[in-house]
Amino acid sequence: PAVDAQANAIEYFVHHEDVRRAQPDWEPRELPAALQGKLWSALKRSARLTFRKSATGIVLIGEGQGRYAAKLPDQHGTVVLRGTPAELVLYAYGRPAVARVELEGDADDIAALQQAELGIG
Fold it and tell me: How far lies 68's CA from each of 12, 56, 62, 80, 99, in Å?
């Protein structure tokens, strides 16, 4: 039940944001700190699986939550993804176009990550 609740929290959040962000002139919601914390905990538990096929190493920095190494680098270096846990969840679950996340790292590594997201790389 605890694992189910964690998975459902992310799933419900992502689907709710899919509907909200499909509307014109959307803006990110101000979420309670407790929900951000739950999303961060759930993201850390799923990040290694979610980012396993990433073209680069991935370090997540959740505002107010800390940092987490989601994937070690291989042929490329590491890209740091910085944002609120909610925005990082959206990015990790395939919504990079609407996730308000800052990408930091070598320009070639960022390009490789973005191309892989689009299925180009």
Answer: 23, 15, 8, 10, 18
pTM of the model: 0.90
CB 47 within 8 A of CB 92: yes
pLDDT digits (tens, 9 = 90+) for 6-63: 668 889 999 999 999 999 998 989 999 999 999 999 999 999 999 998 989 999 999 9
* Token digits of residue 73: 């680098």
Q: Are 30 and 50 in contact (CB under 8 A)?
A: no
Strands 78-83, 102-104: parallel, antiparallel or unpaired by DSSP?
antiparallel
Which residues pair with residue 58 across a beta bridge? Answer: 71, 79
